[in-house]
């Protein structure tokens, strides 16, 4: 082991204070130092899921493989059989435990393990309390917000399916989806749906399908089971992975009564895998029936429109103006003849009235005319300048006068 950074400060276990290329540390020294650094952590409480239990007959030591529920990480745990029987006598693989342990580094094999002096199996009540706490946390962060949930495409080009291999859930989704829409295309990724490796596999499958541009919707399906069996679908890492997906996600976990946290984060929650198949693809027979109904309604609407407009045309054609167009001309001709007759009568009446008025005026004029007076034997006497003489004083003896008679004129001179 080379490099000055490998060991600064004084050595432990009697080793040299520093390691150099000229004075390297032996393997035993490195193992001692690694063990010393690990021992500094002391006793800790660890939460995990039991992936494997090894009880050797006649041996007092029990070996456990403790796995992180949300990551592909595991540690070996050693404990005494009495410790296990006292804290978790019915412990099975897949159970959640909390144990009090101290990390130890075994120099001979170069491995790290935990030595537990107390093991507590997490009961159902504590699991539910943890889930409720996690549910409130995720809800407060907005992972359950309905406003961010996306609508599923009407007819997806390809459906991504995450489920157990050869499981009833896979069969239900594929069978029912193809029964509804025979041409549906699936990309199926088989994963573990329970146990310590379920969450990492589901998250990895989710990333693969979300990055596939041909996948329009992702279905995560699993059949029913106990609360412990469905725990992976309430894992925080899985919930956050689903929340970060760009592709709409459908959760189809368990039965109607099962409600893992994945149901709240997913864009659509299906009560069963069969229900998920009904939600992601339309029913071909139903769509054909709806198309037929729509066509029937459209044909009926067009037919009604044509009938209504034809009736309107018939009504218009039945009107006299269109049925007998000459009637309007005849009516207008009759009106014109009547107007001409009225005009003639009015004109004749006005001319007759004007003629009578003229005749009366002429009679009055003749009655008042000086010529009519002359006809009665009167005469008009005028001086030479044309002035009518009305009194004898207006003339003098010797003045010439002009006397107008009804017929002719006389010249006269005033004698006196």
Walkthrough of the structure:
Its EC number is 3.1.11.6. Keywords: Cytoplasm, Exonuclease, Hydrolase, Nuclease. One of its GO terms (molecular function) is nucleic acid binding. Belongs to the XseA family. One of its GO terms (biological process) is DNA catabolic process. This protein has four domains: 4-122, Beta Barrel (OB fold (Dihydrolipoamide Acetyltransferase, E2P)), CATH 2.40.50.140; 128-280, 3-Layer(aba) Sandwich (Rossmann fold); 283-333; 372-413, no CATH class. The chain has a five-stranded mixed barrel with strand order 1-2-3-5-4. The longest helix has 44 residues, at 325-368. The protein is rod-shaped. It is α/β, with parallel strands linked by helices and 416 residues long. A hairpin with a 4-residue loop joins β4 and β5 (111-121). The protein has helices at residues 27-39, 81-87, 124-140, 168-180, 198-210, 236-243, 261-265, 273-280, 284-318, 320-323, 325-368, 370-375; strands at residues 44-55, 61-67, 74-80, 96-106, 111-121, 159-163, 186-190, 217-222, 249-253, 268-269, 380-383, 400-404, 409-413. Helices cover 42% and strands 20% of the residues. The chain is built from twelve helices and 13 strands.
Task: Considering the chains and any ligands shown, give keywords for the structure.
416 residues; alpha/beta; OB fold (Dihydrolipoamide Acetyltransferase, E2P); Rossmann fold; 4 domains; five-stranded mixed beta barrel; five-stranded parallel β-sheet; 12 helices; 13 strands
